[in-house]
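User: Can you write out an input/output pair for a complex, sequences first and structure second?

Assistant: Here is one pair. Inputs:
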Amino acid sequence: MSAQIEIQIIAIIVAVACSIPGVFLVLRKMAMMSDAITHTILLGIVLGFFVVKNLDSPLLIIGATLVGLLTVYLVELLGKTKLVSEDSAIGIVFPLLFSVAIILISRYAGNVHLDTDSVLLGELAFAPFNRLKIFGVDIGAKAIYTMGVILILNIGLMVVFFKEIKIAIFDEQLAAVLGFSPVIIQYGIMTSVSITTVGAFEAVGSILVIAFMIGPPISAYLMTDSLKRMIGISAFIGAFNAVIGYQFAALFDVSIAGMMATVTGATFFVILIIAPQRGIISVLIRRKKQRIDFAKKSMLFHILHHEGKPNESIENGVETIYHHLNYSKDFLQKIIDIVRNEGILIEENNVFKLTQMGKKYTINSYEEIVQSFNAEYEGE
Amino acid sequence: MNIYELFMSDYTLRIVAFGSALLGLVSGVIGSFAVIKKQGLLGDAVSHASLPGIAIAFLLIQHKNIGVFMLGALVFGLIATAVIVAIDKYTRIQMDSSMALVLSTFFGFGLVLLTYIQKIPNANQAGLDKFIFGQASTLLKADIYVIVAVGILLLVLVVVFWKELKITCFDPVFADSIGVSSKTVSYILSTMIVLSIIIGLQTVGVILMSAMLVAPGVAARQWTNKLSIMVVLGGIFGAISGLIGTLISSVVPKMPTGPSIVMIISVIVVISITLAPNRGLLWRYLRNRTNAGNINDDQVLMNLYDLAINHQNVYHSHHIRAIRPTTTANKKGLHALAITLESLRMKKYVKKEPFDEWAITDKGIEYVLNHPMRKEEAYVSSN
């Protein structure tokens, strides 16, 4: 397998593995926790290294995961005192743990290859050089296997505990009443976030982990209301970002992780613009439709109201009606054209009149509005 | 060599220490507002997001110039803030998600530009990444001038817009109603936050700058409920940690400056949260203990009262075992009860008779009858 293909496979696995816990982080409004954890796991790796003196030991992953959970615990502990708001708590805890890690590295591990920059930035291009060998046989890049295991773990946890996680995310009280401890589920999700981060950061760096965890889920959040579909869509978008990001990075010969993060942002903005229902374009179209509909009905009510009254020729006059409705002449002309084409308005002696059909339509829509208003009023 | 001698003899150290202290002062003052507006993490997002601004500034002028870098960082910091706020406002995506997205994608874009710059044959690019990750020891006199200039500008802005900032932070609706546009003031505040982050980037770096913005404000908040005192305290805490952190890093070998500053400010936060009068955790614990003790005392006295009114002579004494018949009368319980009774006797609510018997006094009866809990019971039963 060529290095290019391997890099892309690693990136896709990381992207999909990150998007699963990412969905839960986004829905639980804890996205910035990913920022905190991606930084503080450095402390776990440093401490683990001091214990085993070996950078390849699996104990480092355990240490890093524990420090990830410690971060969550400390943030919650600080928030629980009510003396510090939750966002400030994150802003205090993670720089502190990160500082401890940097001090430990620069004082006691200066000669070891534990580069703080590489933790943050990552270098995907080097990932294929780290091979996994079984009985001396090269079976592929190590990252494929470590991240593959983490991906399977994430999928497995999600499938087994889907119902519990879903209830705990959307209705914490109900979950507690039904006997699923929201605290345990919370820490379960955070364990998954920590393990995924630890596995991924060596290959792609913490910044890309944050991008992979948050970018695809919030893109998917704009496209669907179903949790299952949201997970599926974000996994797909994550993989898409990874491949496209790699292609651009190879084309311009720039940082792969950086380009994947950039593409993640770009994908989000494209979806933000074109997403059905929640995208900017469809929101604008809907608003325009509503505006025209509102103006149309206002005008019809106005005409019906003044029909047959003494001042009808002024109120409903072709030249004067825009003045009474307080719309600009151009805008009202557009509305009039629409209504005329629908055959509910005609012009008689320079005065607008409703046709038989028009009257029926106007009265119907008036009743509809009154009914919906009443329903809302009674509902309260 | 003691620190004072080192400080006086080392010119570079003086420069760096002065710069760090000033930076701490400014970020403490500005950060206090960020903490109150719950925008602490915005600093983290913005400091990452300003990276492409620095890279683009370098691409445009092809050499290192801190002023131009800051301008680039400022532009991208403001764009990032605007994007974060817009996503939060116009979509159903929450602020924290939009911050995480902007933080990571802008930073990623900055990395792309940095790697692109590294390919350009230009010797000037060296050390550009140090600018982002912070290296206080590289501070030059020229950099200090920039920090001083921007710092003073920010402090003046705080003084000039004090009233507006204050009402916008606490009651934006009220601000709008009296003709202060809370939107405009929020933009000004965001710009000030971005500026204070940018002058800190070179000293403590992207990641630790968020601590410099949040921690002094959080520490100051514990000591006071007044914004003016909080802002001043925040500035002092920031300055102290900047100064001490720099000194420690110069005395202790291989001690990086940024992390050492963050350690000091974190210690100040811990002290403030535990020891600050009124709000501090220690005082809260003591208060809760006193309250629990008082409630216990009152309960014992009421039990005694209930026993007493069942007798013709209300001053009839009761044995200690009879006073609290519902609780398990083990030795420890009795001992605690004796202590409680003793403290009631000090207040002259009960008096002690021979053979461990206790009787209520007039003062005790009066206290029970006027007790809020007793009154509430009477109110409930009369209804």
